[in-house]
Amino acid sequence: MKPTGSAPRLAQGLVRSVVPVLLALLVSGLIMLAIGAHPLDFFAGVWKYGITGSNWQRSLSLMSPLLIVAIGLIVAFRGQLWNLGYNGQYLLGAVVASGLGPMLFAVMPTALATIIVFIVAILTGAVWSLIPALLKARYGTNEIITSLVMSFIAVGVVNLLIKGVFKDPGTSTPQTTVIADTDLLPYIPGTEIHIGFVLAIVLAVVAQYVLSRTSFGLRVDIFGASPKAARHMGLNSTWMVILLFALSSGLIAFAGSIDILGQFSYQRADWDPRYGDAVMPLVFLARFRPVAAIPFVAFYAVLATGGTLASQQAGLNVDFLLVIVGLILLFMTVTEYIGERHRLGQSYLPPGLRRSLPIPVRNESERMPV
């Protein structure tokens, strides 16, 4: 008999979320030992360069784009839409800020120019998602393939813009004009953390409320659980696909613009931090809940901030951080398989949806041929 109380469900969720991280850290330490590195030096370096002194402020600043990318992915994934074009969408938002920003800052007040940059970045990401969204909605085309293709195209377009119309004429390096410090996002008073961090936290709270406490969130969960059941309930699946893709891609592009105006101030050709690759396992660990993603994103932000110098200190390549992320994804899959024997993906559905949709989903499954 399964536990029905909220406390057992919470305990199960914590176990399935925390255990993969702990196992990944343990195995990564064993790998370091096997290749002659020093795991204690590495983890001590992560703590030192990611948290101690003022380094925690750098980690929180990095959280801003990471958390917004995570929210964008959650919006799509809750509707069972696999938006994997996040790298291109992020870079499109970044190039809007780095290329369009200096032009606007030169002719209008900083606050107004910043708002316009954010709006244009969000719209650019949303429009870029139309092709995979329409192909998915009208023809059932696999959105994983189409979103990846659009991402590759976006990367090429961004590089062309940086080497062309957005190139800084004052340097031979293919990069955009450096934005003046006075035009960047302001810091939280008394810190070196830009207000993008506050925007990211607010977005996570708002997204959590919308997805869990509103009729729109219920429609998203119903659509994600069963598009056929959603159509029976009168939901327009075409518009739902387009809307979720637009929201997801727009948020990820917004993260790119936040990153440029928050800390980088310019953009070079062929630059791609690939935040989405690192964030994707974290949104699964958070079980598609925006607020629950905050501690996992904070963990990775500390790991990424301190891990660069810590890797050098331990005699590792900085790409070892991706090994840790891959191990988290691996152990997350194993833990989920062991802990959940229901149909694939059902364990990630919010508890409220499982209670509200048992009959339609069960009836459809019973009518399916075995």
Overview of the structural elements:
The structure is a single chain. The protein has helices at residues 6-34, 39-50, 55-78, 86-105, 110-128, 130-139, 143-163, 196-213, 215-225, 227-232, 237-264, 275-285, 290-313, 320-339, 351-356, 358-367. It is an all-alpha fold and 370 residues long. The longest helix is centred in the N-terminal third of the chain and has 29 residues, at 6-34. It is globular and about 60 Å long. The protein starts with 5 loop residues before the first helix and ends with a helix.
Q: What structural class is derived from the secondary structure elements?
A: mainly alpha
Indicate the proportion of strand residues.
under 5%
Mean pLDDT: 88
What can be said about the biggest beta sheet? none
Distance between the termini: 26 Å
**Helix-strand sequence:** HHHHHHHHHHHHHHHH
Tell me the number of helical segments per DSSP (H or I, 4 or more residues long): 16
